[in-house]
Predict the structure of Methyltransferase domain-containing protein.
Amino acid sequence: MDPVKRQYESYPYPARDPADEARRLVEGSPSDPIEIDHFLFRGRRDWRRPFRALIAGGGTGDALVMLAQKLADAGCPAEIHYVDLSEASRDIAKARMEARGLTATYEVRSLLDAPQIAAEQGAFDYIDCCGVLHHLPDPSAGFRALGEALAPGGGIGLMVYAPYGRDGVYPMQDALASLLGKDAPEVQVAMAREALASVPETNGFRRNPFVSDHEASDAGLYDLLLHSRDRPYAVPELLAELSAAGLAAVSFLEPLRYDPAPHLPATPAFAERLKRMTPAERWALAERLSGNMRMHVVYAVKAGREGQAMASLSAEAVPRWGGPDPRALAAKVQAEGGFAITMAGLRHRVPIPKAAAPFIPALAAERSFGEIAKAARMDWFAFASTFGPAYRALVGVNLLHCSKGLGR
Ligand SMILES: C[S@@+](CC[C@H](N)C(=O)[O-])C[C@H]1O[C@@H](n2cnc3c(N)ncnc32)[C@H](O)[C@@H]1O
């Protein structure tokens, strides 16, 4: 049996109990439908139309359950197809769906078969592939398969590991493999825990504050440190894989984390050099400077459509607020000209002009930006220039998206 399949039969990932569906919905990125609408369908998709989604390597079902539940709540006629190599993972994913009265089709099958599935049943409007491609023997074949299975106007939400935030993980994986590689999985897990407790404080893994999956569960420890096949992607490598598969990135998440400017001196000399860089060069620079990215979440589309996929500030766009009480944020912006937010262990100061503060509470009111401007008795151009910097900042930290058809 393939060692990766064997691992996920023994340790379905992430560890989930279907009984927990009665008390909470696991949410995250990629694959929240409002994010999908914002980044892939300009925030204008008509969700009354059928929506075909593939959950590729769906594991124990986090993305499957979130997508299915939210689309069911929105009354969207969605057809969701789940594939994974692991029967044990499929069983848990299916039980979680059944606990909620949700349906999908399930196959214990490789995502490399996505083009055949699409040819037989129809191309996919959306493909989720979270934490899978970096485990394939030939990841490029996986990227290509997903690209081929995608409908021309559709999009993909991906997560792959990133190298610099995983400092220390790979030497530790090699160390444990050399020690325990021939042992049974349960022995590996138990002895890895003992070994971790005794490595010196100079050990790179021990010094890395960004990785903690091994503390959550045995499945997490196995996934992080005992994996038989796992490679990370720096931004340029990921973009090259997408490009070779006929795909292109629309946006990384959170967008602000991929802006290198806050990590550099705010002088004209640096600003001038940053301005000369392409977006891809800036994303790569942000990754190299920040050092805290342990994964990349990226929304991608067929190459050529990347400039037309994402929502923008327009009178028709309907904002969807994804944060805590927007009135409290408005008060903070009014008082301080911005706010602070911690993402992946790094505190970011997010400047927002005070003049935009009065509009922030309206972002949760389910009204279009045009209606918000009208209520403030402002013509569209005055509103857009006052609110534009706030729009970019709030989308940048993933608190604000646009979707005409989906509410929170
Ligand atoms: C780290 S888990 C991620 C699960 C899920 N996507 C999530 O984010 O919670 C990786 C999953 O990919 C599956 N997998 C690995 N190679 C695969 C392949 N070629 N086709 C389908 N699934 C695969 C594994 O069985 C495992 O369930």
